[in-house]
């Protein structure tokens, strides 16, 4: 690995930037530039020929001739600008005179679909506010986020701009002026920043953050914490002012120190090194030099801040300011947001923000703030050179070295601590400097037997020589040039030298600071590139072998990535590289890369590993790395095993069965014949009915890649073991080893012998065999001979050493066979698990028989705990297969389908006693079975065979017959499952679980009122009142009461049946769904009352479970929870039933009513309480006013129902034909203390009014007084005669009627 220039960003709109900054100088090139070029134009054509061949490294970014020509015409403009790049590379500032352009980071997709970062113009404008001032220096300071979730990204970036007038102004990324400071009236020469760095060693002094401002004869340092707080306060004030024009809140004042630099003729640049503490010897030396022989020395060395300046007379000056010698000055921040905003953004917005006009502010703006005097500080010492003038100084990241450029074209390396020049480069006129600090990678150092060594850091000096267009990287302090790149002649080397401001030792924990150290900006192409230097280039010449090894490793990596290399060439090249690498760690890394390559054939890998191992054996044993030797020997052993297994599978030799006895084969076939119908039906439902995804590695003829084999196996000494990993990897490896044996295409015994010789434990081989068998179920069911081959393999593995312990007691459980059972009961492949259990049961029985004959030498059949475990396991797997077959029945078309659930013995045992019924209930929901159809299915237990014969679809019957046939087949499977689980799937438990499943689904989608209605219907089919009562209470408390109370309060608030929008807002469902919901609530409360009345007459049911499933552990079943529920208070349930009926009628007939207002205070307080609690209920005669309101409501209900009856007669498709509403109103009248005769008479009148005379004539016989006395009839007719006029057509009829009544009275 070597140095490289990596492109990470592109700058867009450079032409627009140039045109904006040079609007007045487009056609007037600078005469000064021409003069400088003519004065310094000596011949430097031979500088390009360097002896170091690294000048033409790959990726150096050499520009073409066309690019150079374009750069010569367009690029020099950047040299006249002030350029600054944020260390986070997300903001760049380009300024010229009084103008500036801000470019912010944006992400875009290139032509290849990759995301790349670009810098685009985000703001451009004029920065100066004083007449005649211009920008002299700019830096971009990213400010850290104060949020705890921050990981090192900046919150925002502040642009600090120094002007020729002495002002320093601070801006946001959008050009908004935050604050302005006039700390000195001379021009600002340079702005520099120092941010927090984690101390590398315990003895290193922790440096404080600061911003330093250099003037021609003064240096101002602003405390970083004070600046950070002030900038945050100003930015927050800007946000408030932009939002609402709020009043000004003054931020804390800036704390700064101002030093007057003495004893230097000219100063052009500086560096603030930070706080340093001298050792005792240096303290005594300085005291002697400064104070003479009799100077006194303090007890503790004082802390000093060191500053280095460059310029002339002397060439470099070193200043030391003792801490505490000058008190910090406080400057009140001139807020730019108060009523005197000078930003372009806020000036333009002055109209709508309501601030004063600009003319009113001018007198205030012309007043300059008070400038504090500087504290004198003399130069301690310097590097005198009367002819040399320094131009630029660049401090290293560790504050120990500094690079200085001068007007003689030299680059000098300074030792900051000792104050001496330690190295000088010549021939670098107008050079630009930067630093790269590289940390040592983890694991690069030699392993230490004691405590781990600390990570080392290397400093590299980056020099850009624009005259020659070359970028060089030099190792420090006396290191060689480690990289050189040919770049453009008009680039800018951008080096910040700081990171994020506002970071400290606490907030930086766990942060990843995303900053670039050195960036090269090419204005010809707009590309930003960063310099990457590997750490090993800083090592001395004694370690140069490692650099060569890394180069060889890179060469091997490139070779392995190529897909067009012939295997012979790959083998020879890779072998040569591996033998040439000297360092054991690098050689090990190269071998691992080769073994992990997917293109290398196994023969190539074997040959290379064998040659490498032979070369290691030929060396001195003490000089050979033990880890490398073990790697070679173990990998060679694994490669040989892979080759042997591959050859056995490719020979085509069939399996010879030598382990299976004829009696065992007959026993297995007998078991298979018994479960064959269920297996066949299961195979039909799981194969080909629905599309599925298959992979190449799932096929029997697919070979396992050698790199996958090596990654899954490891060798420890003489034994090989399988590395634990995902099930897919085990299945892939098991298929490679055993699938050929299971299909009968490979010699089974030879494969087992080969595996046994390698030392792989039989337990791991058994796990691999069971993994491939259980995960390739579909293929297993298609191959009838696979079961016999599985028996042979199991028997062969059981006979291996270490499989079944010889000391095994038959009255204990064998770990070997327990491993098989564990795999079967955990598998979701029900059919494959059952087949494996049947085969293993027979193999275990044969094994036990042989052991019994050996131990007891008796003809008695051995009875052991092991066989009992197998009998239970086989029965459980048969039950699971039957259940899984039912669950695989696809739902009918048009129903919301979902993935087929998979069950296992372990899952059912852990699901508790209600897990089986819960699985079937979910199947019922997926099948969209109505409660009555489920009831019909359960009544077919004795009709299974006849159903099967009559359910065959006849030709030409159509879709109806096919649906009936599908229904009959599903009913047959359900009956079969219920017969296998007579206790767990008793009708009451199944109906209870179906009820609960439907109410859960309704809770997920309340718009589906059918789900809740069917849940109630299922609940009605439960015969046990105890279970009915418990399920009803649980439904009410868990799902119903919240929506029910919301509906009641909504109708009470609106005073009528609410609209759809209100229902959705308050109740969570539409108006139609809410009507159906209230109807279901009426039925549920009615069931609750009936169940409460019946619990006293019936004993609670006894919940049983099948014998083989008696070990089920898990959550309590639904039935158990139902039986544990408390009883209910019947009057309170009836009270809620009354409210539910009123709500349902109001919604059905869209009536105006306040339902809660129909009850007194006691009745209102009793609503929505726990149904098992005792509440104070209304008793005695109700208030006549309430009774009147109730009567009026019931009369409106009857009127509404009669209207629907008329609509039903006129149009059969409209209206409600429900005949139960009159009787319901009468029942409600009795509960509400309303006279039922009034309701009946009103109903008859409404029926006559609507023209329903036949229906009205059926009611008089039901009135409370069918025979009215003749005296009252006479009075009624007399009253009628008084009302009718004499000329009325029926007046004479009324007279005759009166006479007839009087005659009848006389006869009585």
Automatic annotation (TrEMBL):
The Rab3GAP regulatory subunit C-terminal domain is annotated at: 764-1258
Q: Start and end of every Rab3-GAP regulatory subunit N-terminal domain? A: 77-494
Localization in the cell: Cytoplasm
Give the UniProt keywords, A-Z: Cytoplasm, GTPase activation
Entry's Gene Ontology cellular component terms:
cytoplasm
Q: Name one GO molecular function term.
A: GTPase activator activity
Segments traversing the membrane: none
Q: Name one Pfam family in it.
A: RAB3GAP2_C
**Region Disordered: what ranges?**
43-72, 939-963
- Give the protein family: Belongs to the Rab3-GAP regulatory subunit family.
* Entry protein name: Rab3 GTPase-activating protein non-catalytic subunit
Give the organism the record lists. Oncorhynchus tshawytscha (Chinook salmon)
């Amino acid at each position: 690995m070597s140095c490289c220039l990596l492109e990470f960003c592109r700058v867009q709109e450079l032409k627009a930037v140039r045109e904006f900054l040079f609007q007045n100088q487009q056609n007037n090139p600078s005469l000064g530039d021409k003069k400088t070029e003519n004065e310094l134009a000596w011949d430097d054509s031979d500088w390009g020929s360097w002896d170091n061949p690294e000048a033409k490294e790959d990726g150096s970014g050499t520009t073409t001739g066309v690019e150079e020509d374009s750069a010569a015409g367009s690029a020099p403009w950047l040299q006249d600008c002030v350029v600054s790049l944020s260390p986070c590379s997300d903001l760049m500032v380009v300024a010229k005179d009084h103008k500036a352009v801000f470019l912010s980071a944006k992400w875009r997709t290139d032509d290849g679909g990759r995301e790349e970062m670009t810098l685009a113009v985000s703001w451009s404008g004029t920065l100066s506010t004083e007449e005649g001032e211009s920008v002299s220096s700019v830096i971009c300071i990213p400010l850290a986020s104060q949020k705890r979730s921050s990981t090192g990204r900046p919150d925002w970036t502040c642009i600090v701009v120094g002007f020729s007038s002495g002002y320093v102004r601070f801006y946001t990324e959008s050009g908004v002026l935050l604050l302005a400071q006039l700390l000195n009236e001379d021009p600002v020469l340079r702005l520099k920043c120092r941010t927090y760095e984690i101390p590398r060693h315990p003895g290193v002094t922790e440096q404080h953050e600061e911003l330093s401002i250099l003037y021609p004869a003064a240096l101002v340092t602003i405390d970083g914490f004070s600046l950070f707080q002030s900038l945050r306060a100003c930015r927050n004030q800007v946000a408030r002012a932009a939002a609402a024009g709020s009043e000004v809140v003054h931020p804390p004042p800036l704390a700064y120190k101002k030093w007057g630099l003495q004893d230097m003729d000219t100063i052009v640049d500086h560096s603030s090194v930070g706080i340093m503490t001298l050792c005792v010897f240096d303290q005594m030396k300085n005291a002697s030099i400064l104070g003479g022989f009799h100077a006194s020395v303090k007890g503790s060395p004082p802390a000093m801040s060191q500053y280095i300046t460059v310029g002339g007379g002397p060439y470099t000056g070193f200043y030391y300011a003792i801490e505490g010698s000058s008190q910090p000055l406080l400057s009140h921040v001139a807020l730019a947001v108060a009523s005197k905003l000078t930003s372009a953004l806020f000036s333009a917005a002055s109209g709508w923000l309501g601030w004063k006009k600009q003319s009113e502010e001018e007198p205030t703006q012309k007043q300059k703030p008070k400038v504090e005097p500087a504290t004198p500080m003399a130069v301690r010492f310097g590097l005198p050179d009367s002819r040399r003038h320094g131009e630029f100084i660049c401090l290293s990241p560790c504050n120990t070295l500094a690079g200085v450029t001068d007007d003689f074209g030299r680059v000098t390396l300074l030792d900051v601590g000792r104050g001496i020049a330690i190295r000088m480069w010549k021939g670098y006129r107008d050079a630009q400097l930067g630093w790269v600090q590289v940390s040592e990678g983890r694991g690069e150092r030699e392993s230490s037997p004691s405590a781990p060594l600390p990570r080392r850091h290397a400093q590299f000096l980056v020099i850009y020589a624009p005259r020659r267009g070359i970028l060089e990287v030099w190792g420090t302090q006396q290191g060689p040039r480690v990289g050189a790149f040919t770049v453009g002649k008009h680039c800018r080397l951008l080096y910040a030298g700081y990171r994020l401001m506002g970071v400290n030792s606490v907030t930086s924990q766990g942060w990843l600071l995303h900053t670039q150290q050195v960036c090269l900006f090419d204005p010809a192409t707009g590309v930003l590139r960063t310099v990457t230097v590997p750490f090993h280039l800083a090592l001395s010449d004694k370690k140069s072998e490692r650099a060569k090894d890394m180069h060889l490793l890179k060469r091997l990596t490139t070779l392995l990535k190529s897909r067009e290399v012939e295997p012979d060439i790959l083998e020879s090249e890779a072998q040569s590289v591996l033998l040439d690498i000297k360092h054991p760690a690098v050689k090990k890394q190269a071998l691992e890369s080769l073994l992990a390559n997917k293109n290398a054939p196994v023969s190539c890998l074997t040959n290379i590993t064998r040659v490498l191992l032979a070369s290691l054996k030929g060396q001195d044993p003490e000089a050979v790395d033990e880890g490398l030797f073990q790697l070679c020997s173990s990998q060679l052993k694994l490669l040989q095993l892979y080759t042997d297994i591959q050859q056995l599978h490719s020979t085509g030799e069939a399996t010879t069965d030598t382990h299976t006895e004829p009696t065992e084969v007959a026993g297995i076939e007998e078991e298979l014949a018994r479960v064959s119908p269920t297996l066949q039906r299961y195979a039909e439902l799981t194969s080909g009915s629905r599309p599925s995804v298959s992979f190449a590695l799932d096929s029997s003829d697919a070979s396992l890649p050698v790199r996958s084999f090596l990654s899954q196996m490891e060798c420890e000494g003489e034994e090989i073991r399988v590395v634990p990993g995902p099930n897919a990897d085990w299945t892939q490896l098991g298929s490679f080893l055993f699938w050929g044996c299971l299909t009968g295409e490979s010699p089974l015994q030879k494969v087992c012998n080969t595996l046994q010789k390698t030392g792989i434990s039989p337990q791991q081989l058994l796990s691999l065999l069971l993994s491939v068998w259980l995960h390739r179920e579909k293929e297993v069911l298609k191959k009838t001979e696979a079961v016999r081959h599985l028996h042979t393999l199991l028997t062969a593995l059981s006979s291996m050493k270490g499989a079944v312990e010889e000391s095994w007691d038959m009255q204990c459980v064998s770990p070997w066979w327990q491993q098989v059972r564990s795999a079967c009961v955990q598998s979701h492949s029900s059919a494959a698990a059952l087949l494996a259990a049947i085969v293993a049961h027979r193999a275990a029985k044969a094994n036990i028989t042989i052991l019994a004959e050996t131990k007891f030498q008796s003809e008695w059949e051995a009875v052991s705990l092991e066989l009992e475990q197998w009998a239970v396991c086989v029965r459980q797997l048969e039950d699971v297969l039957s259940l899984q077959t039912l669950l695989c029945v696809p739902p009918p078309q048009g129903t919301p389908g979902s993935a087929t659930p998979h069950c296992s013995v372990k899952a059912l045992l852990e699901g508790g006693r209600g897990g089986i019924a819960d699985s079937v209930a979910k199947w019922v929901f997926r099948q969209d079975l109505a409660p009555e159809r489920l009831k019909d299915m359960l009544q077919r237990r004795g009709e299974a065979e006849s159903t099967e014969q009559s359910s065959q679809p006849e030709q030409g019957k159509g879709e109806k017959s096919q649906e009936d046939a599908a229904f009959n087949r599903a009913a047959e499977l359900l009956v079969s499952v219920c017969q296998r689980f007579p206790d767990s799937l008793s009708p009451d438990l199944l109906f209870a679980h179906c009820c609960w499943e439907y109410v859960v689904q309704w809770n997920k989608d309340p718009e589906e009122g059918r789900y809740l209605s069917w849940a109630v219907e299922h609940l009605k089919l439960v015969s046990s009142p105890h279970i009915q009562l418990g399920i009803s209470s649980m439904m009410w408390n868990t799902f119903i009461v919240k929506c029910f109370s919301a509906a009641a309060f909504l109708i009470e608030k609106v005073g009528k049946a609410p609209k759809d929008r209100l229902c959705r807002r308050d109740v969570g469902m539409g108006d139609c769904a809410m009507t159906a919901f209230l109807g279901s609530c009426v039925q549920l409360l009615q069931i609750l009352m009936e169940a409460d009345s019946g619990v006293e007459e019936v004993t609670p049911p006894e919940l049983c479970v099948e014998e083989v499933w008696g070990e089920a552990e898990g959550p309590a079943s639904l039935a158990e929870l139902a039986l544990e529920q408390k009883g209910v208070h019947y009057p309170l349930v009836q009270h809620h039933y009354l409210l539910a009926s009123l709500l349902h009628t109001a919604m059905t007939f869209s009536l105006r009513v306040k339902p809660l207002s129909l009850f007194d205070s006691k009745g209102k307080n009793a609503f929505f309480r726990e149904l098992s609690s005792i509440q104070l209920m209304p008793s005695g005669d109700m208030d006549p006013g309430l009774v009147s309101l109730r009567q009026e409501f019931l009369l409106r209900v009857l009127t509404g129902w009669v209207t629907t009856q008329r609509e039903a007669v006129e149009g059969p498709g409209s209206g409600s034909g429900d005949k139960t509403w009159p009787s319901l109103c009468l029942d409600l009248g009795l509960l509400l203390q309303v006279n039922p005769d009034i309701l009946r008479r009103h109903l008859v009148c409404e029926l006559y009014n609507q023209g329903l005379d036949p229906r009205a004539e059926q009611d008089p016989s039901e009135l409370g007084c069918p025979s009215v006395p003749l005296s009252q009839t006479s009075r009624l007719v007399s009253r009628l005669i008084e009302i009718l006029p004499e000329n009325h057509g029926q007046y004479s009829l009324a007279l005759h009627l009166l006479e007839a009544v009087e005659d009848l009275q006389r006869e009585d």
